[in-house]
Specification:
The chain is of the alpha+beta class. It contains ten helices and 21 strands. A six-stranded mixed sheet has the order 1-2-6-3-7-19, sandwiched between helices. Strands 4-5-21-20 form a four-stranded antiparallel sheet. The protein has a four-stranded antiparallel sheet with strand order 13-15-9-16. Strand 4 and strand 5 form a beta hairpin. The longest helix has 21 residues. The protein is elongated. The protein binds zinc ion. Zinc ion binds next to helix 4.
């Protein structure tokens, strides 16, 4: 059912404007928008959409410094709502201004994910202008607070709670090698181990005082045991659950008895697990070490995203897959999602199917970001075709 005619596919393609895509991507990338400070970039996005004749809403969604952007394209007839969702915040690195050279746009945010967001905007225009979007609706949303650790996804969570949520969602992040059907949830944690009393020379060490370094070593050993247990919780596609220690710090010089040790790392879990149970289990294990070593251990726990799952037989997934094949002549296999993204939030909070699929792009979270202009055109075409396949066909 979801396949659309070759004539319509060709017409949708002819409506995709490469010039507009370049203009909008460069326009969005010219505004520096570190996570938490994406207000001016969202204002720019709202200007682009308003200039194009769309009615733009600006829900604050708990982050009034950078109100989100929402547009609804309604066919006027009942049918499913397909959402296109993008974040305009970028990681906290120095700003690299946009440049166009050959097939590439470079600069901060070009890959992650202002290019992809511009492609979704272009799909919105194509759907409005094609005259064939005759059932259902499109909800386009853009927001801030995506990139961890500066953001925690709270603005999107609030948008979903406020009803800015479709029946299925497409997210144009820089991933297009497979259709992710499962992904792990993620939290980062920091453990601070303290003893009472000030730092002193080692020979002045009070006899009754525990060693924070010994306690740290014990915690690391305990976490290694825990990691072995977690390795047994395995999904053939997503991999195993993990606990990981990324850094450990204590002490100032070789013969001073330190007062504090801290370490931090990650915990990843499968979608069958809830973030609350995972946190409780971690805290319980740390408490045992604190009790045994007679230290105080404070845990700071930062949930990033819940796990993610996608039902491969859903009509939306079939519409996407069929139109991918129709527009590229290739098929797209199912696979794992290597990172957490906003599809995880849509799945855990709203229980809707989501597909992460964006342009060929690279250098995310570095100073060397780039996106392919040809592929932005492909994504805009695919998004428009999928919308017709899912909502109308
Ligand atoms: Zn991103």
């Amino acid at each position: 059912m979801p396949s659309i005619s070759p004539e319509l596919l060709a017409r949708l393609k002819s409506l995709v404007s490469r010039d507009r895509l370049v203009r909008d991507t460069v326009d969005l990338c010219s505004v520096y928008s570190r996570t938490g400070e994406a207000g001016p970039a969202l204002d720019r996005l709202a200007e682009i959409l308003t200039r194009d004749g769309f009615e733009v809403e600006r829900p604050a969604a708990g982050h009034p410094q950078a109100p989100a952007v929402a547009v609804r394209l309604k066919s006027g007839k009942p049918g499913p709502t397909l959402q296109f969702n993008g974040h305009l915040d970028t990681v906290h690195l120095p700003f690299v201004p946009p440049q166009v050279s050959g097939d590439r746009i470079t600069g901060t945010g070009s890959c992650d994910m202002k290019g992809g967001t511009a492609a979704a905007v272009e799909a919105l225009r194509v759907l409005r202008d094609c005259g064939e979007f005759t059932k259902g609706s499109i909800l386009f949303t853009g927001h801030d607070l995506h990139e961890a650790p500066w953001g925690d996804g709270r603005q999107l969570e609030q948008l979903i709670r406020l009803g800015y949520c479709g029946d299925a969602v497409l997210i144009p992040e820089y991933l297009n090698g497979c259709i992710p059907v499962v992904g792990r949830g993620l939290a980062t944690w920091r453990a601070t181990i303290r003893r009472s009393g000030p730092p002193v020379h080692e020979v002045m060490r009070p006899k009754d005082q525990p060693s924070v370094i010994d306690a740290g070593a014990e915690l690391i050993a305990r976490l290694r045991q825990y990691a072995t247990f977690l390795a047994g919780k395995n999904d053939p596609v997503a991999g195993s659950e993990t606990v990981f220690v990324g850094q450990v710090h204590s002490g100032e010089i070789f013969n001073q008895y330190p007062q504090e040790l801290w370490m931090e790392g990650t915990r990843r879990w499968l979608p069958s697990e809830s973030r609350h149970i995972v946190e409780q289990e971690f805290r319980g294990l740390v408490k045992q070490v604190a009790d045994r070593t007679k230290t105080e251990i404070v845990i700071d726990w930062f949930p990033v995203r819940d796990g993610f799952q996608l039902e491969p037989d859903h009509a939306f997934v079939r519409a996407f897959q069929d139109n991918y094949t129709a527009t590229t002549g290739k098929s797209l296999e199912f696979g794992a999602k290597p990172f957490c993204d906003d599809c995880n939030t849509f799945w855990s909070l709203a229980d809707i199917p989501g597909i992460t699929h964006g342009p060929n792009a690279g250098g995310a979270h570095t100073l060397e970001e780039w996106v392919s202009i040809d592929d932005l055109c492909r994504v805009a075409h695919l998004y428009a075709a999928t919308a017709i396949g899912y909502c109308v066909a």
